[in-house]
Amino acid sequence: MPAHFDRPDAGLRLLILLARLTLSEAQRRAALDLCRDIPAWNDLANLAERQFLLPLVYRHLHELAPPTLSPDDAEQLRQRALGLIQRNLLITAEQQRLVAELLEPLDIPYLFFKGPALAARYYDEPAMRSSRDIDLLVPPQRCVELLELAFQRGYRALDPETLTPDRQSLAFAVRTQRVVSLVSPGGVCIEFHHDIDRGAGIYQTDELLEKRVAYRAGNALLYAMPTCELFVYICLHHTRHFWSHLHWLVDLDAIQRHPDFDAAAAHACAERRGLASTVNACMAFYQALAAPEPEHSPHLSRRSRDMLEACLATLQGGQEAELALRRRRPTPEFGFPWQTTAAYRRASRVRRWVGRFQPEYIDYALLPLPSGWQWLYYAIRPCRALTRRGRTLWPGQ
């Protein structure tokens, strides 16, 4: 799946090079060379912030001390980075409060994945890793009581926005959505997942929860995926989004640098999950991005080059470019045809076709029916879809 990208400018090349926890001597020299070509440090800071990378970029630049970075520009970078670090610490505190106030009182098995959980386990300074939300996986049969308690503790609905705290409403939302999002009293988005692979059957929630491991975050003991499982999962997830944010590249770097990482175990896990091609391409992609001009790397396979080209296209084109690539994905779970089989793609098309007839929470919000009558949504949904399509075809009628 070819993707169009322009030759990255010095600012983007510098950020790609700095998207790792530590720099080799060759990378330090290349970074200093690129710093000479930065026309406006404020523009670089804006791009780094959009890529959730600014605190780490500031740390690297502080250590490199490039002559072209004036004291005033350095101070502005520092102040902006401190503001983001404070936000990251707030999210970490909300994660611990979530465990203490909701999960532990209900004795619900859980694990955190991505975001602050990944930062706490694999980053030398966890606050360097910026996060937008907290991702939590819990058993589907425990979701309703967890959401009930969350509403009682002051959480509010985000997705679905019209979610109400009564049990019937929550049960319908859990049945029709794989993730329900609430906003904590501290203003942090919490995504309550009971399925992390969009129903593809790659992961089973009960199995993941049985294999969870404990990790320490401050004074709290929390739970997450084993290292090899998490590594394979982030390769799958970030490839599905075409590596459109550079902090994901730091995640790949941080896990591989950690003492718990075992490349052979990660490959064996990828084989079990049917994701070996994805993980192999990601590791070659990661190696290419360690150089100042990764697009000229002679060692990339066609698959890794597909990944690199899509990454550079999304880094330059933003959300619009990512959405364009998403529309060309072979399935919702995979970004590239080579990640899966023709049989799987056919089965995915069937699932998507069937899914069009499945009720959504909006059906309930428009007409709340008791559980014994909710079968009517299967009849109502096609009518609503036709009405919506008619409004699209004949606006203003």
Automatic annotation (TrEMBL):
It holds the Pfam family NTP_transf_5. It comes from the Bacteria. This is Nucleotidyltransferase family protein.
